[in-house]
Batch of 2 targets.
Target 1
Amino acid sequence: MSFRIEGYVIVSADGMLADASHTMPDSLKFDGDKLFFEQALDRAALIVHGRHSHEQQPNSARRKRLILTGKIKALTVDPEMPNATLWNPDYASFEEACAFADVASGMVAIIGGPLVFDMFMDRYDTFWLSEAPQLRLPGGEGCFVGVPERTPHEVLASHGMTPGEPYLLDAEHGVTVTPWRAARRTT
Ligand SMILES: NC(=O)c1ccc[n+]([C@@H]2O[C@H](COP(=O)([O-])OP(=O)(O)OC[C@H]3O[C@@H](n4cnc5c(N)ncnc54)[C@H](OP(=O)(O)O)[C@@H]3O)[C@@H](O)[C@H]2O)c1
């Protein structure tokens, strides 16, 4: 198996991916970022997320995905989504889950939430961090384990990743996406 592992998240200025009610508010949704995220997921061979982080996009049904859940033990096809595999990482490895989903290569997009991002923290080739600098979500849900005690930048740097040049996604709101790349990789 040969995968390229990429992470995707958009965070508020204080590092939150959701508000205090554990929902992603509309104030954290921007057309430029949505387009960037949709196009990235269209390139992915496989998407990986927790049970509350389905991306809800027009092409979602076509995409292969692993959905993390503690509700099952053995790898199972999701009865509601034929392209989705329910995966409990206590009972099957990532490689076993990929084999079950019949994916052996390509880009794997990790899209959250925080515990799922954390599981792959030492495996990202690139983590695409989108930031909305004009929005704060006090008391919200930090994008990574350890946020807001540490900033998302500090967390990514502590796992050996360094930032490239940011791309502007929304000029009016100053929203950017920055690729954080693992030093061990050259691409
Ligand atoms: N801003 C962004 O870019 C962004 C990105 C992602 C998510 N979000 C938002 O963040 C919120 C979701 O947060 P969340 O913390 O609930 O995350 P989540 O990871 O989507 O859902 C958590 C659930 O996933 C399952 N899970 C996660 N890790 C697991 C593990 N290691 N083993 C077994 N099961 C595991 C568990 O499901 P069971 O209960 O079935 O066991 C758990 O209850 C949503 O509002 C979402 O919209 C925002």
Note: The longest helix spans residues 31-43.
Target 2
Amino acid sequence: MKFQITQLSMDLEYTDESVLRAVRGRLIVAEPMILSCTVVRRSIDARRIKRPVCFTLTVDVEMAEAFGTNLPASWKKMRDIKIIPDSAPSGLVAIQTGASSAVLPYRPVVVGAGPAGLLAAWRLAQAGLQPILIERGVSTEQRHSSVKKFWSQGVLNEDDNVLFGEGGAGLYSDGKLTTQSKLRAEMRTVLELLVQCGADESILIDAEPHLGSDRLGQIVPNLRQRIIAAGGDVRFGAKLEGLETDGGQLTGVIVNGEQIETRNCILATGHSARDVYHMLHRDGVTLAPKPFAVGVRVEMPQPQIDKSQFGQMAGHERLGAANFRLTRKPQGRHRACYSFCMCPGGMVIACASSPGMLTTNGMSLSHRSSGYGNAAFLVPVEPGDFGGAVGDPLAGIAWQGKIEAKAFEAGGGDFTVPGCALDDFLARRDPRALSENREPLRAVAADIHAVLPNYITQTLRNAIGPMMRQMQDVDPKQCTVYAAETRSSSPLRILRDESFQSPSVRGLYPVGEGAGYAGGIVTSAIDGLRAAESLCE
Ligand SMILES: Cc1cc2nc3c(=O)[nH]c(=O)nc-3n(C[C@H](O)[C@H](O)[C@H](O)COP(=O)(O)OP(=O)(O)OC[C@H]3O[C@@H](n4cnc5c(N)ncnc54)[C@H](O)[C@@H]3O)c2cc1C
């Protein structure tokens, strides 16, 4: 018989033995009755209401046969103990194999090797459908040189950059794997696949799993090798330029000027591929505008964040660098504001995929030890804010582009990021020279109010001060704010039905962040996986 115990509080020094003792205490059974205890989930409890920061564990417990199969009466009242049915799934979701290329007369094409495209290609390859995965950028191993050139000299390669290339926008990222997805089996498949490709097993149990950009750089090539080994074909420097259709059915894709005949294409091009949106609009694929959010990225000293979140336990090696999430509801005529994509112990980075436009984001390495944490502070915007014709699906990207062009200009026109001290921003003072006390990002003091629309900066000024006061130990004078954070999610949707196909082009499966149905590494990966499963069906 197997049980699961939830809400088991353990101090930061817990060991296998102390977990076993705590389980015995909770169940009130003799030790020989317990065959094994396995921690299956671990979260940090930083509320510090009655005790210092601790871990909250979920533990699977296997009992000896002698224990019997009946639940003791006293346990039935305990809401934090439940029986695990023998049928509960464990391990990778069973992959259907045996389908062969004979099932599909043409090989399916997957466009984009970000999280969504990689998982879709992996799934199709597992099913024996020999997908062709095309990616406009270069391989993970080759990406670093142009990214380094961009960050150090401001030289942009439009197809090989922080956002484009194998691994997609997720490669130079914080690599946090948190998601609000309720699709547990798919989530488990993604995490287990990452472990098989080299990720640490702790991602399977941590409530806030994290990889870091350095680990992702090792994992993604392993995933590519699995796709190839299962019959997939991976082509770099291969850009989708157009679709071919006949009577509403996809018949081919144009890649680098040449046609690849296919009836099925999983489109996973992310939300930075604005040329793809224009191409789809031109080719009659139905698109619709959607809300998104814009704002700034704020960098803060990580030890101050740790102190405010973990109190006396700050710096404990088992806790690592602390995270935070802050929200402020709409106040008076000001909109809501929320923190997003917090990167503990990371760095603010410059991102661009087209000339003359600059946006910020955050990344980290696996150790999260930079000494600074950063997070976006975002204000939601609606299609009515974008200007342009009512219902124009491309108005959002044009509006984003205007802000990014202003950020580029404010930074001096060479992809240097405009920034200022947070207290200057909040007080609307002229920016002073940037402090040395920050991550070595190529940045210049600038007026951020010139970059974002007035109602956005007003909302941010109104909200960030009170939000930061919730973190008592963070000193706004020691924080730097950078502009502008524009690409937190897609400003439009590529419409699709329950089979994941575009209603206007059958055989076209828009997925991931660019399709507007996912945001973040894991949800995009799950979306790609599910679309591939739908295609297999
Ligand atoms: C700096 C940064 C940090 C982030 N940190 C996190 C984080 O910590 N956790 C998290 O969950 N999310 C994070 N995100 C968001 C996350 O990276 C994205 O949600 C995710 O990568 C989206 O996956 P995707 O596969 O849908 O698209 P993308 O990752 O954008 O991949 C799209 C791919 O398609 C390719 N492509 C585009 N156009 C074409 C074309 N015409 N032909 C061929 N190929 C094309 C691109 O080169 C790219 O490789 C971060 C994003 C950034 C930029």
Note: The mean pLDDT is 93.
